[in-house]
Each structure stands twice: as structure tokens, then as C-alpha cells.
Amino acid sequence: MAVVGGGIAGLAAATLLAERGVAVTLYERQAYLGGRVGGLPTTLRDGTTVTMSRGFHAFFRQYYNLRGLLRRTDPGLRRLTALPDYPLLHADGLRDGFRHVPRTPPWSALGFVALSPSFGLRDLRAMDPVAALPLLDVRVPDVYDRLDGTSAHDFLEAVRFPRRARHLAFEVFSRSFFADPRQLSAAEMALMFHIYFLGSGEGLLFDVPRSPFPTALWEPLGDYLRGHGTALRTGTPVTHVAPRPDGGYEVATDGDEPRYDGVVLALDTAGLRGVVARSPGLGDGPWRERIARLRSAPPFLVSRLWLDRPVAPDRPGFLGTSGFGGLDNVSVLERWEDEAARWSARTGGSVVELHAYAVPPHAGREEVERGLVAQMRRVYPETRAAAVVDARHEWHDDCPLFPVGGYPDRPTVRTPDPSVTVAGDLVRTGLPVALMERAATSGFLAADALLERWGVRGQTLWTVPDRGRGPLLRALAARAG
Questions:
Q1: Most buried residue, 224, 255, 427, 456, by most Cβ within 10 Å?
Q2: DSSP letter for each residue of 190-239
């Protein structure tokens, strides 16, 4: 079998196939594994070798299948560490967080409203509870039938959700999709609300890797795959996939065109579009047209700064922000990552990471980079006296966009070719999963679909409940029709 793509989805598919005795070759165009959660070494001006990645990722406790993948090499998940809170800060000084919010539904949602300073009595009276009823019983794929034709922004307008709370709560979800709420399907936002508030007992607290992504996650998993006979061909982009007249598929790279019995396409949106466009024998006309219509989210920026002095000791490891220009969050890496902690201890400085999501496509990059640094100095005033001794800026535009009305075009795991499957966070799974968890889940499902042809047992998958957990809440939601 060939797995095209070495991100979370491809690694999940390759792991399951290899564990079931299948000979697997994994192709990855980058020189490293992990996809958007990967990283490469870089040398700072002071001679220190550090790892630069695509930026902070939260490993939520609801990521059951991703965590199951990581347990292959870390059974106790000791390479992850918990951050104590998910703090949020608005430019007007309003602060929020999830540390003290109850985790048991529906008290989790009610507790957030009761404890959050962004909800006032006047705001609550102004809300339209009937318009919010669909959030009480989110089901997949029903939620897409009901809400995919509405933007996240318009849904919140209909609910008359308080603007301050909207910035600090729901826009956190939409921005995590690297999209403006006006472009994001309300169904995806509602699904996130279900996953974190009403569908699970884990809440919005999360873990992060203790070491850079390659060291903590993907190098051990790569060794695990090699131990199961998998050939890892990093730095090897696939140009096209061609069905053979005698059965099987040729997977073409710049070097050769070996034959495989089946293929998992675990690519980002642009990568999938490109391979399918160059592979005229794959799928049928309608499927190929749907793939061609897929879109990527706007560009995003990750700026990592090495400062000559520390931030204040009470600064959290991660802070979500709103109202600070294009700045969406700030991370202080030495709070949890050992590599950054060693640099900080040796130099007395701090390693700070800044994110900007959904950057306007025509924005000047240097201007945006300077703007993030200026906003950091607003958020953490003690950094105004700090010199930036080194910096790295990562620009990318390869995240999937889930636009209003776009759900029918998104691929499913199965394709018109029984021996070709698709995996990734852009894929429709029919399960209540999102982001990294959707990538891992779809990777396992893609391998399951191929193993099924030989009658081989696949992977047991876990998700939050596929509907609202409370009978009363489901009854109320039914009133919304």
C-alpha cells in the first residue's frame, strides 16, 4: 500500500496498515513527518540549534483517536503536559478562561455563562434562546443539513449572542479553523460547541508536548513504523497516481513509479487538488469536479521571537487574544517546552510565539510581522524594553476552508475507486470530530476501508457522543425543527 502524505492522517493510516501486516510505503514531500504539526532544525545567531515548527497546537482531551495514535510509542502520554487554563484576553481588558468551568454537560455550558464576565444580565435577556436551540442536539451529518448554509457570524447574529462573549468564546472556534466567521460554516462552529461543551466531559483544557513536535511525537512514531516494515520516503513529492490496466496503481515521483494494491491520499487541500488534477484515471467526473472546487483557508503567520529578557513570571504559557489587530494568541514556550526552557535558562530571555490567522491574502508580510510584534508589546508591556535577538516567521496557506454551503463538496474517506481512500482534516467522516482529531480519525478510517476488502479487522474508534447527551436538551432542540 502507498500512503501519500506524512501528516497526522497519513501517519494514522500507515500505522494501522503496518500493524495489520501490510507492506506500506509512506511518501511525504517535506523532509520531516507531522505535516502541519511538524518541525525542522534551525540555527540562531548565537549558534544554538533549535526547532522551528508551524506553531502552537493544543492537544485536547477529546482527541481520543489522536491520543491513541500517540500511545503507540508513549503509552502513558508522558511526552504531553497539561496547561492549567485556556485564558482569553480582549483589548478592552476583559479576561476569561475555562479552568473553573464545570466539565459535566450541560453544566459546562451553563457554568461558562455563569462564570464568564462577558455575559451580563442585559445580554442574557437580549438573546434569542429559540435560535440557539440547534446547539443543544448537534448530530453528524444532520448539523450540516441544518446549518451549513449559514455562516458562523450570521448564526451568532440570529442568536443575538453578546458581542464581548462572541469575541472571547465562539470566535476562538472559528479562528482555530483559520477563517473569518463570515466565511465559516455555522455547522463547523456548532460541532465544536458540541465537542467541547455539551458532548464531552473533558472541557476546554488541553495538553501540549514537553519537547518540540519531532522529538516528542513523530520521530518515535517514525521509528515505530520502520520497526513494522514501513518505508518512509520523506522529501519525496508524488506527482500523480495512475490505475494500471492489470490492477493496482502506479504512484509516480521524480524517481520511479512503483505498483501498489491500494493508495491512501492523505494530503492538504491544495495537494489533493493537484494530485487528482494530474491523475486523470482516478475517480469519476463528479468526484473530480468536487475535489477541484475545494478551497484553502486564508494565509496565517507564526512568528517566533527570542527575546533578550523574560516576560513577567505570571504570564501563562498560552493566551488567546481578541481586539489586538491581527494577533490571535501569544505563547511563552519556556513554560512547557524543554528546548525553549534550556535557552531561556542559559540566556535569561524568553521564547515567545505569536499567531495571526486569516490574514488578508494581499496584506504586506513585513507589515503584518511588525504589527504582531507591536501588539505583543501591548499585551505584555514588559516586552517593550526587550530586544528581539532572533526571529523566525512561518507563512502558510494550506489549511482547509469550510465555507458556507461547502459541505457537499468535501470528500468522504471512500472514493469511486474501491482501492483509493482519502484522509485528512478536510474529509467528511460522519463522526463528531474536528481539526487534528478529524485527521487522525480519517486516517484510521481510510486504512479500515482498505483492510475491509481482505476481511482484516480495523481500528476501534472513539468519539464524543454523536448527539446531544441529555434527553431534555434533545427535546428542546427538536422544538427548533
A1: 427
A2: HHHHIIIIIS-SSTT-EEEESS-HIIIIIHHHHHHHHHTT-EEEET----
Per-residue pLDDT of 407-428, as tens digits, reads: 999 999 999 999 999 999 999 9
Angle at which helix 8-19 crosses helix 435-452, to 10 degrees, equals 30
| CA atoms of 165 and 174, how far apart (whole Å) | 14
Quick one: CATH architecture of 300-396?
A: Alpha-Beta Complex (3.90)
pLDDT tens, residue by residue, 225-242:
999 999 999 999 999 999
Before 411, cis peptide (omega within 30)? no
Greatest distance between any 2 Cα atoms in the chain: 70
Residues of the chain with pLDDT under 50: none
Which CATH code for domain 2-38+213-296+404-454?
A: 3.50.50.60
Mean pLDDT, the chain, rounded, equals: 91
pLDDT at 201 (0 to 100): 77
- CA distance to 134, 200, 275, 280, 419, per residue, from 241 (Å): 42, 40, 7, 9, 12
